[in-house]
């Protein structure tokens, strides 16, 4: 399976993957998925929102066990983010058969469409549409960098955009969803475990900080006469880092815009975007408030006005405890010694679905923690341990 997927959408210079929703590379990934389903004698279907399903048993019977992930990528993404979950799911179906385990519940492998949001700017479009978290009307407004709308892109790729929308009947047939994913961090590397179970997805959000100063000549304006928003911004970045460290949370200024953006001009405006995530909402709120306070205090000293706008917020996703604990126990076969349970700061389709379906996630160790990069990696032994773990979970949930 990896051999087939390896060249699809791979950029020759960066070595990274550019598999954006409804592009040629995406079409190739979808054809691969369909071939994998057919080769195993599974019933293939593409749902109204462009998510692909491969079924063992009759979906209409209900209480299905579903596993899978996504095949699309971020710009120059790694090989594992997404595909590891889909490849491992098909491999787990093979392993179930090798074990002679016969599912007593319908079992499906799924490929959720447009998970990364690399093309249209919104993540998890396939699962959001299915769950109703994204309306067809709002989906119709999404456009890529060339001005192509999501419905146009779907239509060009041969999918009927008129059909998109909430699919509660489909969700009602799912009894459990388990997503395996490469870890996007080093928690398992630090504990020394090849596979772990997700406890929760941290609440996270984006805040825009506007620092208003006064443009002036870099060569003639005395330091004491300046109202330099870059200074306030720089101090705010440092404050965010310090506050995040003290709170055991994360805060990142990863995007900045400067006006007039001239090398010999004191800026009139610096706009910085803060991405912040924490284990709970109270910590996150307190952290962002502390950063905002630090920005205003420094702004007062610099003669710079500070305006903060929250642009997005996603509350905590707590995976269902009963399923999570069952999965953690199934992994080791020993209730007294369950697999490690860890939180993550990254969003996933499993997080979207968890509002409607009991959901769990497995993580496979990432030795460097690097993700969303061509350098992303997972050892072959760990990937095989992931397949073994997923098979144990599917056997425990669907075959007994
Ligand atoms: Zn992913």
TrEMBL record:
Pfam family, one: Peptidase_M20
Assigned keywords, A-Z: Hydrolase
Source organism, top-level taxon: Bacteria
Gene3D superfamilies in alphabetical order: 3.30.70.360, Zn peptidases
Record InterPro entries: Amidase_Cbmase, Bact_exopeptidase_dim_dom, Peptidase_M20
Annotated TM spans: none
Keyword Hydrolase: yes
Keyword Aminoacyl-tRNA synthetase: no
Entry similarity comment: Belongs to the peptidase M20 family.
PANTHER family: ALLANTOATE AMIDOHYDROLASE, ALLANTOATE DEIMINASE-RELATED
Protein name in UniProt: Allantoate amidohydrolase
């Amino acid at each position: 399976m990896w051999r087939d997927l390896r060249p699809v959408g791979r950029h020759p210079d960066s070595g990274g993957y550019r598999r954006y929703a409804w592009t040629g590379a995406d079409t190739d990934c979808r054809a691969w998925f369909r071939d994998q389903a057919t080769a195993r004698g599974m019933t293939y279907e593409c749902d109204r929102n462009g998510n692909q399903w491969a079924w063992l048993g009759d979906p209409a019977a209900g209480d299905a066990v579903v596993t899978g992930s996504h095949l699309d990528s971020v710009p120059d993404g790694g090989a594992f983010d997404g595909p590891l979950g889909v490849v491992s799911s098909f491999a787990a179906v093979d392993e179930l058969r090798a074990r002679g385990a016969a599912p007593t519940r319908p079992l499906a492998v799924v490929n959720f469409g447009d998970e990364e949001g690399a093309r249209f700017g919104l993540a998890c479009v396939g699962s959001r549409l299915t769950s109703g978290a994204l309306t067809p009307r709002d989906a119709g407004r999404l456009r890529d960098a060339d001005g192509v709308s999501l419905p146009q892109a779907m239509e060009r790729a041969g999918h009927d955009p008129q059909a998109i929308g909430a699919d509660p009947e489909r969700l009602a047939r799912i009894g459990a969803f388990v997503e395996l994913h490469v870890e996007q961090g080093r928690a398992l590397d630090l504990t020394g475990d090849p596979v772990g179970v997700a406890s929760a997805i941290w609440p996270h959000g984006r805040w825009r900080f506007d620092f208003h100063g006064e443009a002036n000549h870099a060569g003639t304006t005395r330091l004491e006469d300046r109202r330099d928003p870059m200074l306030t911004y720089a101090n705010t970045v440092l404050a965010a880092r310090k506050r995040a460290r003290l709170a055991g949370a994360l805060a990142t200024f990863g995007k900045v815009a400067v006006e007039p953006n001239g090398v010999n001009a004191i800026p009139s405006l610096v706009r910085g975007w803060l991405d912040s995530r924490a284990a709970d909402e109270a910590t996150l709120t307190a952290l962002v408030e502390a950063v905002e306070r630090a920005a205003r205090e420094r702004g007062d000293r610099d003669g710079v006005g500070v305006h903060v706008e929250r642009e997005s917020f996603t509350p905590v996703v707590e995976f269902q405890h009963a399923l999570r604990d069952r999965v953690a126990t199934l992994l080791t076969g020993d209730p007294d010694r369950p697999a490690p349970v860890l939180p993550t700061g990254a969003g996933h389709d499993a997080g979207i679905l968890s509002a409607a379906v009991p959901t769990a996630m497995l993580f496979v160790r990432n030795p460097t923690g690097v993700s969303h990069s061509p350098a992303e990696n997972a050892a072959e032994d760990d990937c095989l341990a992931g397949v073994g773990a997923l098979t144990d979970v599917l056997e425990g949930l669907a075959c007994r």
